[in-house]
Fold each of these.
Amino acid sequence: MKFKQPQTLQGIATLLDCDFVGSEDFPVLGMNEIHVVQPGDIVFVDHPKYYDKALASAATIVLINKKVDCPKGKALLISDEPFNDFNKLTNHFNPFNQARAVIADSATIGKNTLIQPNVFIGNNVTIGDDCLIYSNVVLYDNTVIGNGVTIHAGTILGADAFYYKNRPEKFDKLLSGGNVVIKDNVDLGALCTIDRGVTGSTTIGEGTKIDNQVHIGHDTIIGKRCLLAAQVCIAGCVLIEDFVTLWGQSAVTSGVTVGEKAVISAQSGVSKSLAGHKSYFGSPAGEFREKYKELASIRLIPDIIEKLDNL
């Protein structure tokens, strides 16, 4: 998430009421999660296990809960609660804006686009040309829809990320300040849910077709001309490359990559990154040939046990 106006390190430290390491006028341009940070961004870290990763990331401002050696060319914000302060920044720079109408005055709708009754279109939503949006679709604030997109009834774009910190007494929610971006010529089935990014965009690539009741988590990127069958579930921060097929009820865990032109069979569970141009099935999902060998070996177990008993 980029700020509308550049900020300074001292200005952010004053907002958070925290100490800082670096020049007072060190530029602060935005805030992002570690997998999408760029120079000028703030990234937060609150566990020693991830200090090195955050300090070595592309982010040039690290919101951290311990004073450490500051890498050259970077700055630190020293906070007792980086998680809470990251939320404070989200609230400050991207506050919740209550809806005042079923279709917001700030929404932009392209030519020849048809909006059926009972559709909700939030603040600053952009919809391209030649789209068809069926009843009871909900488009949260800042959603971006390309040209030639069809969205079937009951689909919701832009709900909050499922992202919580486990405290001893409760779960603390990380606020979502990102959005959903749907590229040109995408079809979305009925009752799909696509969560917005925490700070960036959850993106569906050009020409991708998504069946009914599919869920896609925050900050996930789906490539172009992918096929997702009914009840596919994709967690947050996943990269699905171009021309991938996921058949019904398959699921993908957080943070993995599924390579170009991979095919995932129905009810498979993807628990690690998979290379492209191959077909997979099972849970955990594996390449077809390897899985068939495993199944063949399992079928031999009764015969092996019987032979051992007869020794």
Note: The mean pLDDT is 96.
Amino acid sequence: MAEHMKNTDDYSLVRVPNDARLPMWEILLVRIGAFTCISQFMLGASLGFGMTFWQAFWATMLGSVILQVVSLLIGIAGAREGLSTSMLTRWTGFGKYGSGIVSAVFAISMVGWFGVQNSVFAKGVDSALGGALGFPLAAGLTGLFVTAIVVFGFKWLSWTAKIAVPGFLIVMAYGIYKVLENHSLSSLISSPTPGPALTLGAATTMVAGGFIVGCVTTPDMTRYARSGKDVFWITLIGTFLGELGVNLIAVLMAHAVKDSDIMSIVLQLTGVLGAAIVAFATVKINDLNLYSSSLGVTNVINTFFNKKINRGVVTLIIGVIGTFLSIIGILDKFVAFLVFLGIWVPPIAGIMVVDYFILKRSRQVLDESRNKGTLPETYENINPVSLIAWALGFLSGYLIKGGIPSLTSILVSAIVYYIGMKIIDTISNQKKLENNKTRRMIGG
């Protein structure tokens, strides 16, 4: 048993070796699976209920471009270094203890959403079975089912995607077929907004904000990629096919039935079986929630307690806790807190991108250790500049009204971090010059 659990660690605190890297399509399928779920369909239905087709198209396109840029940049860093987001932050601006703080935010946020979405999944399954199980039993079974998948790591996530993604896409195709039986495509595209109007800014924010946490944790997936080119196609196809495709299908369905209630739409168009398949597709986003949370918790324990604990064991513990909390309904009362935590995540991407691609402060030690297949032996304990930039990025996204909050927070954190590190470097260089001058004078 101990040997079996050893294989579930999934390189949580080390680089993914080259011989463990996966074909591009396997990672892409997992990425698409993150979008082919109820929550994404709910987003598209909300856009369709509050916007015309073309308004929803442009809102989705703008939001998707933001998601694509963020995902691509930190995804390439994850693939190059073979490290998860939680580990990568140690050498991209935050240092060891800053990385632990970032990982704690990821862990709490992701396991919270795991519990909330498990409730959605369980209710869908129970409804499809006519209430035969009851919510507590359904939530227990669905939560433990997802936990069991995630315990065995990324390869099991890939196998789940091979089942859930095609099933979801078949249901969507059938739903569109049923829509077009009674409506022409041109009439749906040109139809007026069914519900209260939604502004372009608000809709773009919904699109970008809805998956921004998934963007920042992109290295959790792309650390298995074989090249930066693979990351480009994984993020491009995943974002635009998943985000744009699912959203626009949901928009057309919402226009057809004049409703934004997701299960009502699916039941009307595809029946109970279709609703059950769509509910099952929730597994694909929820296993990623739990997976990223397990990587975050593993890093937190290693950072603050200097202990290495198997990621599979961590998954089992937090999966059971998240499942229990979803059964008793306590997590539903913390959705506002989870949304608040989500606002803290986007600025992390701005800091990581600036440090890794522009300042390149740790690139030399990363390159040297990567050639040996190890981790750098040196790192900062903590970088106050990154914490200040992180806080200011959060405050800007939270307080500045108008625009796209997630983009605002990323840009502000990136600019503040860049300027802050340049000031620190200038002061440090000035001190070195003064010290050298003093030594020469003494030597003279």
Note: The mean pLDDT is 88.
